[in-house]
C-alpha cells in the first residue's frame, strides 16, 4: 500500500532519519515509537504528504486514501457538531453531483449505438450502485454511533462547535476521520483529549474497523490493545518488529544487549590492535604486521549502540513535611455554572499518604473539583484542607502557561529562591536540559519538554499534597515511567487526574468516579474499578448505553426471548454449529501464533547482524504474507461465530 524507500531528513544540519525504508501493508496496525524528538510526528507528516524529505521516496497505491490526525490543529467554528461531522460524507455529495451530470448527459445525447454511450451507461450504473450502497449503510446512524462512542450526548449534536473546548473539538475531528474510513489512518497522540471510556471505545473501533493504521501514542495500554507491529525510531534508523509494544520492549532489550556485547568486543579488539601497533611500530621485523594492523583499524566500521537510558533524569520529589491525618475532607460539595450542575453532594475523605485517582468523562467535573480544592473557584458545601497541608499543583495546561519568550534557565530562575538558585544548572542537567539546552527559548521546546520543565517548577519547594491534572500528556513512555516511580516513592498524599490506565495501574489504591453529577468512591486500583464498571469491551459499553436509553424496552425484549425459547432439536443443532465454528477459530488462532513465532525467530536472527542466508528474507516475506491471509481468515471465522451465537 505505502512503500517508504531510502528516506533521509535533515533539519539545520541535524540528521533526523538516514536511509530509512519500510512498507505499510493492508491490515497492518503499527505503533511508531521512540524518544520525544526522534521524528515520529515528522514521519507521519511525510507519509501524509504534508512535508517533504531531504531525499528518498514515499510510494502509494493508486486511489489510496489517507486520514491524518495531527497533535494540534486549527479548527474553524462555523457549524454545529453534526453538521461538522457530516463533512466526512462530502464524497457522497460529490457522487450525487456526478450522477446528476451523467443523467443530464444521457438525456442530451442521441448516439445510442456508440461505444462511448454504452461506456457512459456502465459508469452511471456503477455510480448508482455505489450510491445505493452508501444509502444502505445509513451513514446518519454511523454518525450518531461514533459521536456517542467518543463521549458526546445527543443534546450536543445541534450545539455549535464553538461552545466546546479544544479537547472536545479534537474529538469532532477524530469522528470525521473515523467515518471517512480511509485506507490508512495516521494518528498522532489521539488519546490526549479522551477519557477512559472513550479510549476504550476508540480501541475497539480501531481493532474492528480500521483498515491500516500508523499510530503515535504514549499510552502503553492503548497501543498494546490496538497494534500488532512496532516500528522504533532510534539514532536516525528504524527497527521493525511484527509484535505489539510490550513484546517489542523485551526484544529491544535483547537487541541492545547484543549490540553492547558486540561494541565491547570491538572496543577490546581496537585496544589490542592499537597496543600491538605501538609496541612494535619501530621494529623492522614486525613492519609488515604493523602495517596490516593499521589497515585493519582503518577498515573498521564502528558499532553503534541504540539510544538507551543514558541520560541523568532521575525524578525525586523532596521529602513531604508531615501534614494532618486528613489532608482533604469534602462534605456535600456542589458546583453549578448557571443552570448547569457539574456535581452535587460530594462527600469523601482523603487520608494522609493515600494516592487516589479522579476518573470519568471529560466535563464530568474532575478538574473543576481540583480547582475547588485549590480555592481557585467558589463552590457550595464544606471543603476542608487539613492542618499544615502544602499543595503542589500540576495543571492540565501548565506547560502551555509557560512564557515562550523566556529561556529554560530563566523560567526556573524566576521561581527559584534561596540556596536552590546556586544549583539551577545541576537541576536542569538532571532533567536533560544541560549545557546549550538551558539557553533554548521555551517556545521552541516540544510538548514533552515543556511538561518536563513545568514539572521542575513543581519540585522546587517541598509539598505534602500533590495534585496532578493529566501529568502524562506529551510525556514519552520512559519519562512517564520515571514520573510514576517518583510518585510511588513520594511519602505525601497524591491526587491524580488521568485517563492513562497503564500510568494509574499500581500507583493508586482508590478511584473516585465522576459522572452524572455524582462522585463515587471505588476501593482498589484502576483495573479493579474498570472490572466493576464492566467497561472492558465495546460490547459492555454499548450494553450500558442501551440500558441507559431504555431499560424497560430491554426488559420487554428479554421477556419475549424467554417466551420464544428454541426447542431442544433446534438448540442442539445451533450448539453443534457453535462448536464447529469455535474449533475453526481456535485452529486459525493457533496457526497465527505459530506464524508469529517463526517470524519473531527470523527477526531476532536479523537483529543480531552479521551475514545471513539471503533466502531468509524471502522466507520472512512469505511468512508475513501467510500471516496476513491467516489473520483475515481468523477475523472472518470470528465474525461467523458471533453471527451463529446471535
Automatic annotation (TrEMBL):
Superkingdom field: Bacteria
ABC transporter domain segment(s): 2-260, 328-541
Keyword ATP-binding: yes
CDD domains, alphabetized: ABCF_EF-3
Record Pfam families: ABC_tran (PF00005), ABC_tran_Xtn (PF12848)
Gene Ontology terms, MF aspect: ATP binding; ATP hydrolysis activity
Record protein name field: Probable ATP-binding protein YbiT
Species for this entry: Sodaliphilus pleomorphus
Amino acid at each position: 500500500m505505502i512503500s517508504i524507500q531510502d528516506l533521509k531528513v535533515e533539519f539545520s544540519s541535524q540528521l533526523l532519519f538516514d536511509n530509512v525504508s519500510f512498507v505499510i501493508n493492508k491490515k497492518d496496525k503499527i505503533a511508531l515509537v521512540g524518544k520525544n524528538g526522534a521524528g515520529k510526528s515528522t514521519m507521519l507528516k511525510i507519509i501524509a504528504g504534508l512535508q517533504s524529505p531531504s531525499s528518498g521516496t514515499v510510494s502509494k497505491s493508486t486511489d489510496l486514501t489517507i486520514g491524518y490526525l495531527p497533535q494540534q490543529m486549527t479548527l474553524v467554528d462555523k457549524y454545529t457538531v453534526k453538521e461538522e461531522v457530516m463533512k466526512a460524507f462530502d464524497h457522497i455529495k460529490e457522487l450525487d453531483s456526478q450522477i446528476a451530470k451523467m443523467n443530464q448527459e444521457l438525456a442530451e445525447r442521441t448516439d445510442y449505438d456508440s461505444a462511448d454511450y454504452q461506456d457512459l451507461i456502465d459508469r452511471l450504473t456503477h455510480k448508482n450502485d455505489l450510491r445505493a450502497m452508501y444509502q444502505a449503510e445509513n451513514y446518519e446512524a454511523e454518525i450518531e454511533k461514533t459521536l456517542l462512542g467518543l463521549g458526546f450526548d445527543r443534546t450536543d449534536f445541534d450545539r455549535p462547535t464553538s461552545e466546546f473546548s479544544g479537547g472536545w473539538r479534537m474529538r469532532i475531528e477524530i469522528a470525521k476521520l473515523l467515518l471517512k474510513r480511509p485506507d490508512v489512518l495516521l494518528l498522532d497522540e489521539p488519546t490526549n483529549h479522551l477519557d477512559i471510556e472513550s479510549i476504550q471505545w476508540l480501541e475497539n473501533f480501531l481493532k474492528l474497523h480500521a483498515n491500516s493504521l500508523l499510530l503515535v501514542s504514549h499510552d502503553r495500554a492503548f497501543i498494546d490493545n490496538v497494534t500488532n507491529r512496532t516500528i522504533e525510531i532510534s539514532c536516525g534508523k528504524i527497527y521493525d518488529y511484527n509484535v505489539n509494544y510490550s513484546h517489542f520492549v523485551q526484544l529491544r532489550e535483547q537487541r541492545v544487549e547484543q549490540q553492547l556485547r558486540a561494541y565491547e568486543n570491538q572496543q577490546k579488539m581496537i585496544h589490542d590492535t592499537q597496543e600491538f601497533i605501538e609496541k612494535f611500530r619501530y621494529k623492522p621485523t614486525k613492519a609488515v604486521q604493523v602495517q596490516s594492523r593499521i589497515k585493519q583499524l582503518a577498515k573498521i566500521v564502528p558499532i553503534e549502540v541504540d539510544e538507551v537510558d543514558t541520560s541523568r533524569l532521575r525524578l525525586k520529589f523532596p521529602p513531604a513535611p508531615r501534614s494532618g491525618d486528613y489532608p482533604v475532607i469534602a462534605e456535600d460539595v456542589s458546583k453549578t455554572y448557571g443552570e448547569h450542575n457539574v456535581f452535587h453532594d460530594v462527600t469523601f475523605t482523603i487520608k494522609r499518604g493515600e494516592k487516589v485517582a479522579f476518573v470519568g468523562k471529560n466535563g464530568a467535573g474532575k478538574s473543576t473539583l481540583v480547582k475547588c480544592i485549590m480555592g481557585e473557584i467558589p463552590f457550595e458545601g464544606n471543603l476542608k484542607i487539613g492542618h499544615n497541608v502544602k499543595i503542589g499543583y500540576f495543571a492540565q495546561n501548565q506547560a502551555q502557561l509557560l512564557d515562550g519568550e523566556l529561556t529554560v534557565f530563566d523560567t526556573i530562575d524566576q521561581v527559584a529562591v534561596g540556596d536552590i538558585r546556586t544549583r539551577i544548572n545541576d537541576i536542569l542537567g538532571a532533567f536533560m536540559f544541560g549545557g546549550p539546552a538551558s539557553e533554548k527559548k521555551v517556545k521552541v521546546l516540544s510538548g514533552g519538554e515543556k511538561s518536563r520543565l513545568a514539572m521542575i517548577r513543581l519540585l522546587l519547594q517541598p509539598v505534602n499534597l500533590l495534585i496532578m491534572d493529566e501529568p502524562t500528556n506529551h510525556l514519552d513512555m520512559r519519562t512517564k515511567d520515571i514520573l510514576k516511580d517518583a510518585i510511588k516513592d513520594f511519602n505525601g498524599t497524591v491526587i491524580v487526574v488521568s485517563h492513562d490506565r497503564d500510568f494509574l495501574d499500581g500507583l493508586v489504591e482508590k478511584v473516585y468516579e465522576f459522572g452524572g453529577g455524582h462522585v463515587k468512591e471505588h476501593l482498589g486500583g484502576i483495573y479493579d474499578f474498570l472490572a466493576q464498571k464492566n467497561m472492558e469491551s465495546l460490547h459492555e459499553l454499548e450494553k450500558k448505553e442501551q440500558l441507559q436509553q431504555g431499560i424497560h424496552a430491554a426488559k420487554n425484549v428479554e421477556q419475549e426471548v424467554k417466551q420464544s425459547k428454541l426447542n431442544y432439536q433446534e438448540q442442539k443443532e445451533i450448539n453443534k454449529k457453535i462448536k464447529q465454528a469455535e474449533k475453526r477459530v481456535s485452529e486459525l488462532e493457533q496457526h497465527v501464533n505459530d506464524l508469529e513465532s517463526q517470524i519473531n525467530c527470523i527477526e531476532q536472527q536479523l537483529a543480531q547482524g552479521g551475514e545471513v542466508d539471503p533466502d531468509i528474507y524471502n522466507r520472512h516475506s512469505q511468512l508475513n504474507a501467510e500471516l496476513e491471509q491467516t489473520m483475515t481468515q481468523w477475523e472472518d471465522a470470528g465474525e461467523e461465530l458471533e453471527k451463529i451465537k446471535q
